[in-house]
Queue: 4 jobs
Job 1
Amino acid sequence: MPGHELGVNVQDAYGAGANAEQYASSFEGLHSDFTDVLDAAKDACADEPQLTGWSAYGEEQVDAIARVEHHGVALAENVQGGASDVANTDTQASERYAEVGVPPSLPVNFH
């Protein structure tokens, strides 16, 4: 990295968090959708030879589907929380630099 600089564009990070939140909202009701798909598959296989195990398979997947729903929401919260932490750190750093009275060599990121 030139100049050993590290930074985060807070607006982009908040935007990514909002996108993740919107994506995660599509996970709501995932279990119900999964159950509907299993029921449709079960109905489609009602004729001979009959396949069994649809309900058992659905029950086995309940925890996995709940984890997918939870991870989607957690992703959005983590991205937005990280952006907030960066913004707070930038603000605190700018206040400390202002107290010293020496202008920084690079402008502080206030995005």
Job 2
Amino acid sequence: MTLCHRGRAGFKLTEDGAAVYEACLGFTESVASFQHQLHYIKQLDSVHGGHIRLCLIDQMPKFFYDALRQRLASSYRENPLIHFSIDVQSPESMLEKLVSNESDIGVGYFGSFPPLLTFQPAFVEKKWSAADASTGFFITQKD
């Protein structure tokens, strides 16, 4: 296969030479495109993203909502590809959604713990009571 003619009159590609040249240009563009895609994939690998389905009960301590609001805001700032959806449920409905994989994280007060789920305490709430026998005064307070 002859790719070009060279001589005193100059340089000229043959039809085969022109076809090989075009194929080389296409190959070079494909390699550059592959390198760009690989770089993009590496960048995505270093950024966390996805959808987290969060389930809460409607009555949580104010400090918990404040901490949750701050954590969600910092998550969005650090990883803009993370998206949260928040659903308010009763503890029983929440457990059903967690077991059926309709929710990823549940936060609430639970009386029982299904064996399929992992539980972590988010906070400890204490309740104390005091009474004065002489006045009959009775106080109950949560900490």
Job 3
Amino acid sequence: MDHGLGCGTAPAEEGAEYDGLMSLVEGTVRAETGERVVAVSVACRLCDSDGVDEFEVWAGDCYCVGCLIAIGVWDGVDPATFPSPTRVFPWRLVPSMTPLPSLSSGDYFRCSAGSMVFQVAVAMVLGQDDAVRRISVGLKCSDHGGLHIYIDNAHVEPSE
């Protein structure tokens, strides 16, 4: 899936890591009455102290290029990835109108220029109880700056 602005071949501008990505991912989720949207940029919980905020995207998740730990968009079990432990519960993504990414381990996401490393942002729709109802995952190509939607307003449901 790629609902994005695509990549050119010119390098991304230095210091512009999340320009446009947050507004892109926030714009994909649709909150209903009583719900609210929370969007966060994602950094690896282990490597962030080393300045690592880049991910490869394959097998339906985003994996840190430093340690290969996934952020857990399919299951929501890692509260360190998301804004607050009170908003996170184990979930599973539910197929809806927009297809979900492939879970095949050989299915790497690449930008239109062929790059495989991205900054990641996640937007979540929270219900009145602060439980996550829907998520979107946006990507920004680290090499060329192109913006892409990887998961588009997917419904989540508790898995426990």
Job 4
Amino acid sequence: MELLLIVIYLGIVLLVIEISAVLMMLTGLDNEIARFQVTSLLTGTGFTTQESELIIRHPVRRRIGIFLILFGVFSLAVIITLVSNLLEKRFRLPELLVITGILVFLLLVLKLKPMQERLSKKLHAPLEEDEGVEELPVSELLYNDEEDWIIDIPVIEKSEFEHCHIDDLCTANEDINLLFVQRGSLRIRRRGENSDTRLEAGDVLYVYGNKKQISEKFSKELEHRHENLVDENKTVSLL
């Protein structure tokens, strides 16, 4: 009976992993990253990879992560209890000696050099190649010190920057760089065929530079952005 319960509960754990991975993917995570991070959270492994920052910085992903951590602790206690009952009722010294003997035999086989060479050819796989700087996180690539900042800034109605030419937004004396303007699904760069573009309300500016200068120049826009983020967090907390 305990063995059946263990199998059923392991099935439940696998279902929780799949459901959580799907939810993580719906928040924008890659399939492989989502599945690995979900498994790490559930088992309490605690891999301190840069990918884990993708979970910490997202409110919905954090809530999923908290559930997985708590569920993982509970599951470990359940499985330990079931396995203990199973060993107590069904296994005695002879059975344990047989299992120990099998494991020792398996270890000795794996220690054999011909077996290691054969398995090495089948199991060896090259590491994933680093594609270059485009694979690095923004914070690692652009942040040289505490004063560096990259942020998305919405252009609000009646903003002083509304109708401003994108080439006039940042002056040469300012440590502020306009990376691009997001207008719906369109990304507008400062130079090129869209160089005559003027800003409109609803545009989102992606700027990089000195944090203090950005905060002073776009103070009203950043205040509006903060209010929107607070409202979004309140909405998420109600779900």
